[in-house]
Specification:
With 553 residues, the chain is mainly beta. The protein is built from two helices and 41 strands.
């Protein structure tokens, strides 16, 4: 007996499913629109951008153009959030920026998340009127296969217009060239400037999303990556890459001529750069004024597996600069308020925004009478006047000046004298400006300075001190002219004397010390680099741009 099933007709999709699929198709189509600029003029390029939406691509035609106007909110062009700006290729689409060196100005304002820039050449004007060629500020920004030439101020500015979340993303297979100079000590350019997300906030505060309020992002995607690029300069710039205001970058697998990385310091009235990761780069040095691969005035970093070849005599060192510890800042007047001077002043214990940890045997409680003008601590046995300043500015000696804080009252003052168990100082800035029984005191030289070398966020500001995290610098496996090991690229600590001359720190410097703030020839414990290449840069068949590479050859 045969059995069978009746044929079941195929189910037709419901009308609702058809509508959903159609909506998705139309949405994807809408997000993938392409707009081609009628010409390379600023007006036509901005017009194409204005017609586009997030997810669209704006194509730039082949040719050359000079941009002179401010077509978008004070910049050359803008409105690129979520969009791709794509030229016909390096040196095929070429733009010259002649819009003027205005503060905060950029030829291309690429503010916004998921911006993609690729396939063009952008040159600074011959008259030097170019502030920032490209400004970026956003998440998952991708810059690839572009060339920036004749840079005289800044090539790419990261986060220079924001106090919001810091930028992330990658720049790869690009070429950045400074203007050529006949004197190798005349350039003042920065090829890339990472301003960080603490820009615009009062220096004694962290912004809500500021990087100095967060732990350092070593080995994570929370950085801007600069990889597989060519950097070229034939003169000493301000730095090839410079960071400010908590800026942090990963610099890896680049080929560079006379390349330098600088971390700015708060001695000049800004928050320092936060961290850098610098590894697997090849650097050729041909100028005698080369400052070194890394020159840092704050923050922390790792420097490893870099290969440096110099055909001139230069200093093979990684410089950690302790500019606030002595020298030109030694005449600074005490500032016991929360107000920041433009120059943050000497690191001497008198600033509420520094760490102000106690010197040896320099903390306790007042055991004397109420409303006392001098501190008494019956448990101490100090040497007479051991807490006075040592060193002299005139001979450029290191100055260690001591300050006393009443942590209970919030007042502080420069120490004028001390006996075996008393300290005399004129207190100010507090509630009572005197001593009561049980008041907690701290005698300090200020260490650690806010944002100083070897320290990172998170930062917490208290009434009479700030707290940060000891995060030493580490360097290992670097090669200088074929030599490796401790002496191939060691850390050297310097400060500026009263003549603005860089001086190697005296042994008495308590602020930046070996095997505490930095470690030579030592792998950073627990450190793992972020995967290479960056996920946004994983393309096949993307060659390095042609042209001069190491040493200009």
């Amino acid at each position: 007996m045969l059995s069978y099933r009746a044929a079941v007709p195929p189910r037709r999709p419901s009308l609702q499913i058809v509508r959903i699929l159609l909506f998705c198709f139309l949405s994807l189509s809408a997000r993938a629109a392409v707009f081609t600029a009628a010409s390379l003029s600023q007006a036509d390029v901005q017009s194409a951008i204005d017609k586009s939406s997030i997810g669209d691509t704006i194509l730039l035609p082949a040719g050359s153009a000079t941009w002179k106007a401010h077509a978008h909110a004070g910049s050359g062009i803008g409105g690129l959030a979520g969009r791709t700006l794509k030229g016909a290729g390096i040196d095929v689409t070429k733009i010259t920026d002649q819009c003027g060196a205005l503060t905060g100005f950029a030829a291309i304002d690429a503010t916004g998340n998921n911006v993609v820039l690729e396939g063009f050449t952008l040159a600074a004007a011959a008259d030097g009127h170019s502030a920032i060629l490209i400004s970026i500020s956003g998440r998952d920004v991708l810059i690839r296969r572009i060339k920036l030439i004749d840079i005289v101020v800044r090539g790419i500015g990261i986060d220079h217009k924001t106090s919001g979340p810091h930028s992330t993303g990658v720049m790869h297979h690009c070429e950045l060239r400074a203007r050529s100079y006949t004197n190798d000590n005349t350039g003042r350019f920065q090829l890339v400037t990472a301003f960080g997300a603490d820009a615009g906030a009062p220096p004694q505060q962290n912004t809500a999303a500021g990087t100095w309020g967060q732990p350092p992002p070593f080995g994570t995607s929370e950085n801007f990556f600069i990889e597989d690029n060519v950097f070229w300069q034939d003169a000493q710039g301000d730095s090839s890459i410079e960071t400010y205001y908590g800026g942090h970058v990963v610099v890896r697998h680049n080929t560079c001529a006379n390349f330098e990385i600088g971390i700015h310091g708060n001695d000049s009235g800004v928050r320092s750069g936060h961290i850098i990761e610098c590894y697997d780069n090849t650097i050729f040095v041909t100028i005698s004024h080369w400052k070194g691969l890394v020159t840092s005035r704050g923050g922390s970093g790792v420097v490893y597996n870099n290969t440096i070849t110099a055909n001139v005599s230069v200093r093979n060192a990684l410089f950690l600069q302790s500019y606030r510890s002595a020298g030109r800042l030694a005449t600074d007047q005490p500032d016991v308020s929360l107000r920041f001077p433009y120059n943050m002043g000497q690191l001497d214990g008198s600033k509420r925004y520094d760490g102000n940890t106690p010197v040896a045997n320099g903390t306790g409680t007042h055991t004397g009478s109420k409303n006392a003008r001098a501190l008494t601590d019956a448990t101490k046995a100090w040497k007479v006047n051991q807490h006075l300043a040592t060193g002299t500015v005139a001979t450029n000696d290191f100055l260690q000046t001591l300050y006393i804080w009443n942590r209970t009252d919030g007042s502080g003052g420069r120490i004028m004298s001390n006996s075996a168990n008393t300290v005399t100082a004129a207190l100010s800035g507090g509630k009572r400006n005197c001593w009561n029984p049980g008041d907690v005191y701290v005698i300090t030289c200020g260490y650690p300075g806010l944002d100083q070398c070897g320290w990172t966020g998170p930062t917490t500001f208290h009434d009479t001190y700030a707290t940060q995290t000891l995060t030493p610098w580490y360097a290992w496996s670097n090669t200088f002219n074929g030599a490796t090991g401790t002496n191939a690229l060691p850390f050297v600590v310097t400060y500026l004397d009263i003549n603005h001359t860089s001086v190697v720190q005296p042994a008495s410097d308590v602020f930046v010390q070996a095997n505490r703030e930095y470690y030579n020839n030592t792998v950073k414990p627990g450190y793992t680099a972020y995967p290479y290449p960056h996920p946004l840069a994983r393309e096949t068949g993307a060659p390095l741009p042609a042209g001069k590479t190491g040493g200009g050859h």
